[in-house]
Design goal:
- The complex is a heterodimer of chains A (212) and B (363).
- Chain A contains nine helices and one strand; from the N terminus they run βααααααααα.
- Chain A is mainly alpha-helical.
- The longest helix of chain A is centred in the first third of the chain and has 19 residues, at 45-63.
- Chain A folds into two domains: 23-134, RNA polymerase sigma factor, region 2, helix turn helix motif (Rna Polymerase Sigma Factor, Chain: A, Orthogonal Bundle); 137-212, Winged helix-like DNA-binding domain superfamily/Winged helix DNA-binding domain (Arc Repressor Mutant, subunit A), CATH 1.10.10.10.
- Chain B has 363 residues and is of the alpha+beta class.
- Chain B folds into three domains: 4-123, no CATH class; 133-276, Jelly Rolls; 287-357, Phage tail protein beta-alpha-beta fold.
- Helix content of chain B is 28%, strand content 31%.
- Chain B contains ten helices and 20 strands.
- Classes of the chains: A mainly alpha (212), B alpha+beta (363).
- Strand 1 of chain A pairs antiparallel with strand 18 of chain B, so a sheet runs across the interface.
Amino acid sequence: MDDTNTISLYHGESALTRTPLFFTNNDSPADKDSKIWNAFRQGNREALDYIFKEHASNLFAYGTRFTKDQELVLDCIQDLFVELWNRRQALNETKSIKFYLLKALRRRIARTVHGAKRLEAITDEVQYLEEKMNFSVEQLMVAQESDQARKAGLRRALEGLTKRQRESIYLKFFQGLNNEAIASVMNLSEASAATLVSQAIAALRTALPKKS
Amino acid sequence: MKDYKDYSADDFIGDDSFIHWVKFPTEGGDGFWQTFIAENPHKREEIEEAIRFLKLFDDQPVALPPEKLYRLHQQINDRLDVPVSASTVHKIVTSRSKATRFYSYAAVITIALLAFASWWQFNTQSSDGLVKPVTVSKDSHAVNSRQEHVIPKGERSLITLEDGTQVWINADSKLEYSHDFLNGPTRDVYLQGEAYFDVTSDKSRPFIVHVQGVEIKVLGTAFNVKGYQGEHKIEATLVHGKISFSGASADNVTLAANQRAVFLTEKKRLLVENNVQTDNYTSWRKGVLVFDDQPLYEILPILERTFNVTIHTDQATSLDCRFTASINNMSLDEVLELFSTSDTIGYTILANEVYITGSFCDD
C-alpha cells in the first residue's frame, strides 16, 4: 500500500492489518471498474488480483486470435500486468478495464510478434505492425446451426472478410465493445470503425440469406 | 432514445444495446428489450431474425487451463513483490560492457548469473552430485564425510561453524558442509530452505553458500538466504558487507547496499529491491514474523513451517487475501486468533492439522 499502511517492526506489538477492496456490489459496472482501477492506480494489490482474475482468461482468448504461440501470449499478459503496475501512478482513468486491457495487449502482441526494437514506437509504426497481425477466423463460429449449407456459407463469408473486418466483428459480438471502443482498440477513427462493422455485417448477411 | 420501432433486422444486429442483450444475458440488463418486444409485436419477426443471426456466432476461445492461469498469476506476483526502482538494474545484463560499468560502485554486491544454457547444466550437476537427499535428523551428524544440520518444521537453530561463522537455520531447512570445510580453498556450505549467515571474515578463503543451483560467494558479511524447493525463487537479503550471487557465467550486475535480490528460477530473471527493511527478512531468528501486504498463499506456508502444522482452508479463493502483520513470538493459537478477529473465519487445531473455515476478505 502506498498510502495507508506502515508496517510495525518486530520490536513493537504484534499487529495485523488486512488490505481492503474499494467497491460495493451496488455500483454500476462502470462505477465498479472506475473504483477498482483507481484502487489499482493507488497501489492496491488486491485490486490487481481482482483485475487479473476477471480478465486474464479473456485476454488470453483475445491474444491467441493473433498468434498460435500460447507462451508468447502468456508472456505478453505477464509483462502487461507488471508494466501497468509499475506505471500505475501515470495511468489514466477508465470506466472499462476490459477495453483498456484489450487495447494494451493488442499493442504489446503487435510489438512482440513483429519485433519492434524500440519500446516507444510511434503510432504510425504500431499501426503498421498491427496491419501485419493476422486475426484468425478459426473457431470464430458457428454454433447451433444444424443446416450445413448455411454453416458453410457463413464460414466462407467470414473467411472472405478482411482481417480488420473480422476483428471488428469479434470485438463487437464477443467482447461487446461499441464502435468508439473498437476504434480505440484498433487505432482507427470512429467513423472507420463504424464502416468496418457495417460492411462486415452486410457481407455476412448477404452470404446468409434470411430464412424462408 | 433511438426509435427502434423503425429498425430492420440489420439495424438490430448492429445495435450495441441489442447485442449486449443477446450475447451477454448474464450481465442482466434492465428489461428494456423484453418490454419492447411485448409492446411491439410487429417487430417480432425482425428481432427473431436478428437474434438468430447473432447466435450463429459462438466463441470457442483457446482455453487457458486453471494451472497455467495460476502460474501466470504467481509469476506476476513474484515480479511485483520486488519493486524495482528506475535507477536500478532490473534484469540480467548480458553484455560485458554494461557489467563492467557497474564495477566502479563502492560497497556493492556483485551478482553474477549464468547464462540460460549453462544454468540448466549447473542445476543438473548440483542436483545430481552435490545435494543428495538425506535422512532427516534433528542433530548434526556426519553422512559420507559431510556434516549436516537438519532443522525440522516448528524449530529453528543457531550453530557455529569451525571458522567461527554463525548460522541461524530456519524451520524445515538443511545445511550441509564437507569435513574439509576448514582446509579447502573455499568454505562451501549447501543450503535447502532458509538461513541467516554471519560470516567470519577470511579474505583468502571465500565462503560459498550453494542454494538451489546458485552460488552466493562471500568474504565477510551478514545476510539472509531463502531458497525452498518448489518455490521457484531464491532470495538473498544483505544486512552488511558484500556478496556475489553466481552460477558460472561472466554476466554481472552490481547493486548498492541494503538490498534484496530475488532470482526467479523459472524465468531466469533477477530482481533487486532497494532500501529494504532488512529486519523484515531476518527477524525470524528472534521468533518474529513480518508480513508486508502479502497474500495468504505466501503467509500460510511460513506459518506451517514455523509451527509444524498443515493448514487446510475450505475457500481456495481467499488465499489471495493480503495481510500486513508482525507477529511477535506468539503461539499458533494466538496467531489464528489474530486472523479470526480480523476476518470472519473459524479454526480448529487437531494435533498437527489446522482447519480454517469461512473465507478471508469476505466483505
